[in-house]
Amino acid sequence: MVDFKVVLSDPKTGRSFKMTASGGAAGAFIGQRVGGDLDATPLGLPGYRVKITGASDRNGTPARRELPGAGRRRLLLAGGVGFRPVCDGQRARKAVRGSEITQDFVQINAKVTQYGEKQLDELLAPPATE
């Protein structure tokens, strides 16, 4: 199976948490789309729901929300995800991925949309070292 690095943002506090999703947790993301809402119980967050806000593959190629499918394509971009123009009217052909999450992705960005009973700090606290 595949492992994903998941960066989970908490809009209430402004904090973000880094976690690894493997096995069943990674399987919950496969087939979802950027902008999709899913249950976070497989990630160890009971009662939470998260929205996928972005993703990138091993080369750092970002996923564009409006692009269907899962493949890598070269588009002529004038701005937005994957290209930041320096001057007005600048366009460039850049490689971007479709919005469907597949095994080719390495990092998934998400934000909390519904909170559970426990706080994220309690659930995702690093283990205490002595």
Could you characterize the architecture of this molecule?
There is one protein chain. The chain is mainly beta and 130 residues long. It contains two helices and seven strands. It has helices at 24-29, 120-123, and strands at residues 3-9, 16-22, 37-39, 49-57, 72-77, 92-97, 105-114. The strands form two sheets. A five-stranded mixed sheet has the order 2-1-7-4-3. The protein has a two-stranded antiparallel sheet with strand order 5-6. The mean pLDDT is 91.
Brief overview:
This protein has two helices and seven strands. With 130 residues, it is mostly beta strands.
Note the main attributes of this structure.
130 residues; mainly beta; Ubiquitin-like (UB roll); five-stranded mixed β-sheet; two-stranded antiparallel ribbon; 2 helices; elongated
The separation of the N and C termini measures 33 Å
Q: How many beta-strand segments? A: 7
**Radius of gyration over C-alpha positions, nearest whole angstrom:** 16 Å
Using the coordinates shown, work out and report the CATH topology: Ubiquitin-like (UB roll)
Order of helices and strands: EEHEEEEEH
- CATH class value: Alpha Beta
Give the strand content.
35-45%
Shape verdict:
elongated
Overall number of domains = 1
Number of helices: 2
Structural class: mainly beta
Contiguous low-pLDDT stretches (5 residues minimum) are: none
Mean pLDDT: 91
- For the report, how would you describe the main beta sheet? 5 strands, mixed
CATH architecture: Roll
Strand numbers in spatial order across the main sheet: 2-1-7-4-3
Helix share of residues? under 10%
